[in-house]
Amino acid sequence: MSVRRVLSGVAAVAAVTLTFAMAAPAAAAGRKQTKPTIVLVHGAFADSSSWNGVIPLLQAQGYPVVAAANPLRGVGSDAAEVSALLKSISGPIVLVGHSYGGSVISNAAEGNPNVKALVYVAGFSPEVGESAAALSAKFPGSTLGPALAPPVALAGGGKDLYIDQGKFREQFAADVPAEQATLMAAGQRPITEAALNEGSPAAAWKNIPSWHVYGSADKNIPPEAMAFMAQRAGARETVAVDGASHVVMVSHPDRVAQVVQNAAATATQ
Q1: Which of 204, 223, 257, 269 shows a CA-CA span of 20 to 30 A to 116?
Q2: What dihedral angle (degrees, nearest 10) is formed by the CA atoms of 63, 42, 98, 218?
Q3: For 171-175, what is the mean pLDDT?
Q4: Residue 222 CB contacts under 8 Å (≥ 6 apart), including other chains
Q5: If phi over 0 gives left and psi between -120 and 50 gives alpha, with beta otherwise, what is residue 232?
Q6: Are the beta carbons of 263 and 119 closer than 8 angstroms?
Q7: What are the residues whose beta carbons fall under 8 Å from the beta carbon of 191, sequence distance 6 or more?
Q8: Is the dihedral of CA 172, 174, 178, 179 positive or negative?
Q9: Confidence (pLDDT) at 29
């Protein structure tokens, strides 16, 4: 046998070996399920930092996380902003909304087949035409109105609303350490009065499974209202955290992260 023939045979075996070596990881990758991306949408009088306790808990479990910026200008326009972000994400999505952010996710998810689950964290899940203000007033218990600072008139018309910093902790974050609540009060982002009174164009919870978690001591949205919305939506899971304030994700990030993970467990491809 010539040296050339021997070398040719070795090259052929090496090529076959390389082909199998490359094919095996590719096949394994094809079988691997991708964890859904968790998209977190903050609510009024807050910003994306309100998720800082939840994010590392989700990331530690291998979930990709995006904390979306919510403009807080109007349900329809805010939902359009979040919807655009969702379209940039490939694969399954779990969409999470806090407070007014619940109204936003109820619209942003509409028509997007990648959104597999909705999680309402002390959040509104409105019927078509319902506003956040109307849902808060549906049951007694909200003390938000008297806690608001004087409205800020906007140049183009309308008003921005803030919570009075001196009343912020008691109203919004009673179970958060005082120093942290003071920072939250100073950094709060305003919402327009019109946004809180805008009827919801859609109700994605009618077609997408939902999970709900809220605090039993919430002073912004009456707990009875949130229990009503969860039941109406046919929630897969409803968790009322005893004694928790409106910012249950700040004071009890572990409880909120667990509910999000429960939703995410059903959302793999």
Answers
A1: 223
A2: 130
A3: 98
A4: 136, 138, 139, 140, 141, 142
A5: alpha
A6: yes
A7: 44, 45, 72, 100, 160, 161
A8: negative
A9: 37
Question: Token pair of 145, please?
Answer: 């109105």
pLDDT of residue 156: 86
Nearest CA-CA partner of 59 in 267, 198, 255, 261: 261
d(CA 40, CA 121): 10
Q: Does residue 106 register a pLDDT over 90?
A: yes
Residue that wins the pLDDT comparison between 116 and 13: 116
Which two three-digit tokens encode residue 156?
A: 């183009």
Query: Which of 84, 102, 68 is CA-nearest to residue 195?
Result: 102
Helix (H) or strand (E) holding 231: helix 223-232
Q: What is the pLDDT of residues 115-141, one digit of tens each?
A: 999 999 999 999 999 999 999 999 999
> How do residues 231-243 score in pLDDT, each as one tens digit?
999 999 999 999 9
230 confidence band (pLDDT: 50, 70, 90): very high
Question: What does the pLDDT average to over 200-219?
Answer: 98
* Residues 6 or more apart whose Cβ sits within 8 Å of residue 40: 48, 51, 54, 55, 65, 66, 67, 68, 96, 98
What CATH number does the domain located at 37-264 have?
Answer: 3.40.50.1820
Distances from the Cα of 107 to the Cα of 156, 160, 173, 185, 234, angstroms:
25, 22, 27, 28, 18
Residue 174 predicted with pLDDT over 90: yes
Structure tokens at 235: 């929630």
Is pLDDT at 75 greater than 50 in this prediction? yes
Tell if the pTM clears 0.70, that is, is over it. yes
- Distant-in-sequence, close-in-space partners of 216: CB < 8 Å, separation ≥ 6: 223, 240, 241, 242, 243, 244
> Which tokens in the block code for residue 153?
């008139």
How are the residues of the chain apportioned to helix, strand and coil, as percentages rounded to the nearest 5?
A: 45, 15, 40
